[in-house]
Amino acid sequence: MKLPIKKLVVFFTSLIVGCLQAHADFVFQQNRNLSVSLDKQEATVVHTALGILKKDYTKVFGGKIVEVASPPIFIGTLGRNSVAEKHVSAKLLSDLRLHNEGFIIEVKNDRLYIVGSDKRGTAYGILELSRIIGVSPWEWWADSPVAQKNILSLKNGYNRLEYPSVKYRGIFFNDEDWGLLPWSSTNFEPGLPRVGKTKGAIGPKTYAKVFELLLRLRANTIWPAMHEVTVPFYFIKGNKEVADQYGIIIGTSHCEPLMRNSVNEWDIAGKGDYNYVTNKDAMLAYWTERLKELKGADNIYTIGLRGKHDGMMQGVKTLIEHKRVLSQVIKDERDLLKTYVNPDLKKVPQVFIPYKEVLDVYNDGMEVPEDVTLIWCDDNYGYLKHFPTEKERARKGGNGVYYHISYWGRPHDYLWLATNHPAQLYTQMQQAYDKGAKDIWILNVGDLKPGEYLTELFLDMAWNINAIKNDINGLDQHLKNWLSREFGSVHAKALLDVMNEYYRLAYIRKPEFVGGTRTEEKDPKYKIVADLPWSETEILERLNAYKALSAKVVALSGKISITQKDAWFQLVEYPVLAVAEMNKKILYGQLARHGKLDWTESDKAYARIEQLTQQYNAVSNGKWKGMMDFKPRNLAVFERLPHTKAEAGLASHNPPKFLWNGIAYTSYSGNKPVAHGLGYQRGAVTVPVGTTLSYGFDAGDTDSLSIQMALAPNHPVEGKAIRYAIRVNDGPEQIVNYATEGRSEEWKENVLRNQAIRNTSHLLNKKGKQTIYIRALDEGVIVDQVKVW
Predict the structure, then answer these.
(1) Residue limits of the Gylcosyl hydrolase 115 C-terminal domain (predicted)?
(2) How many domains does the chain have?
(3) Of the candidates 65, 67, 68, 85, which has an alpha carbon nearest to the alpha carbon of residue 76?
(4) Fewer C-beta within 10 Å: the chain N or C terminus?
(5) What are the residue ranges of helices labelled H in 377-488?
(6) What's the pLDDT band for 159 if we cut at 50, 70, 90?
(7) Among 588, 606, 638, where does a domain finish?
(8) pLDDT, tens digit, 9 for 90 and up, residues 479-513
(9) 217 backbone dihedrals φ, ψ, rounded to 5°
(10) Contact criterion met (CB below 8 Å) for 415 and 633
């Protein structure tokens, strides 16, 4: 007699389960309910996390998680006398007590135990089960499908202890005007009240989804959206409460002291000028009001003072005045914290952010209290401007980093697509951690979408700085694992090649930078799309690279399952195809201006970007309507190009006689250089101090060389210089410093092309075979390309 296929599946599944249970494994099984023991007195965030796991378990296995007294899963937090704490191994428990926000997962005798060192640790441990059963943290935010499973087991003896490398880990919503805000206020959560000049609000329904994502990513902190178009976070009823529900700590950016979003709030709740010199009492009263409101809440308090929005404070004119007033402001703010938060300031999380002009004041010798955390910033383009010194590393308050993958400002915005190179983010943050920035990491994510992968990379590093091997293989493996989780292991290798090429081409020039325009410049020429200094050959090479990349994505699109299509479009298809079309629009336009072809291809590319963006806003049955805008600001680079004629000729093609990627060295002395996949050809190498690279070649009969070094435009790690030494054969060594100052023209060029360029000339003392020697004199030297003419 033949049994129906469905009954056979049930029979064999039951047989497998029986065998697994006989070996004392913990088994998750399709259509099986799971029982959990959790004290009702546990913190709210723990119950929130269990609620998320319940939803995930039902999606994966079809059953339910129910709470009972004697289940196979026991969950508890240290110090609460839970069954879980009593049964996990003593060694693991002893190690867990050393770490905040850590967790243990252990399987013993067909039971699973989760113990957290505190409320967030327990929540992260619970949600680790979601990861184990295959649920992506982006299941809602990128519509990542949840695959059903028949069975999954954790072997008896399975155990893990995890805890964060960085104390406070989170994101900052910024420049939310054209994505997050319009999507939330008109589509996902319409109807919230508006105040002042605002155009909409981001409320508790949206923030609940954000905070769930942060819990899934093992983050604990947010700086909420704060532009003047957005109703301030604390003005919306329910926002604070939902943060408490998810255990999220609220902080604020560099220009929002004591939890006040003054770009909006001062005009509504303040009195007089936002000027501490002339209106001190009113400002103190304004801050006091907010501190009283937040009594008992989880907050990180920014201290100091800037202007109402990303500008210099009012009332001071000289550096001496600025330092004096700022020092008094900090003293007065801390007195308020003592009065309204905690008399013991060591128990009040505080940050001081030396950003822009405030860095000048700090560098002039302004003292910051020892218990305050210093947050160091990148230059807005992903290159950290300061690493903690030995003295700063010794501070009780510690150090942190505020880092950008989205930015509005000069020399040009990049608000549309998240194209920062993963290896740039990795090398900068790894070095920051190694230099002692371990207390708070905040990532400026703009609108969050489409920065999904970079956000997870950043937060994964913050959770476990050693989880990613410190080389190109480690980074490739992290990206491959991410792609495999989202789209399956079958496609992961091909997708890895696609995304590495996507990041490589954008590293050479971000899509927003291809038009040669700039923002916030006085010269009107920067408001008009202009030629890049590329020859026809270079333009065609780049266009062909994007054609090949697009073709790979189109081919892969046909292989992606129906259930993955929405996530695929958001995470791969839109960013890759849209950036390709942007390059086509601009570069075909450059050729058309010079009469090399007509304007058809440029115009078609513009139309294609429009069509792709409409498709993005219609994906998932309109769930993301309003989230994507290919014109985040009304700038010429985003428009259809005017059909004009060029007044000057195209740049001539003058390739070097010899070109090496950094990694193509002939030999090295000292510590081995490390490649991370950075650079114009993914061949840049980080050169340890004192290490010398050599590049050998035959120069023929020439008696001199011109050598161009192209380096990652890092800032000095220690001191004010970042230098290398260069010589040819046994000729004289030339010392080259490529540090830049402020927002100089050189710095602008550097960040737009992601290369610092230095040229040296060398007389040869022999014909034929030559050797170039390059020695790193300071930390942070990354050699991308070496060119010889």
Answers:
(1) 690-786
(2) 4
(3) 85
(4) N
(5) 390-393, 422-434, 452-463, 472-487
(6) very high
(7) 638
(8) 999 999 999 999 999 999 999 999 999 999 999 99
(9) -90, 5
(10) yes
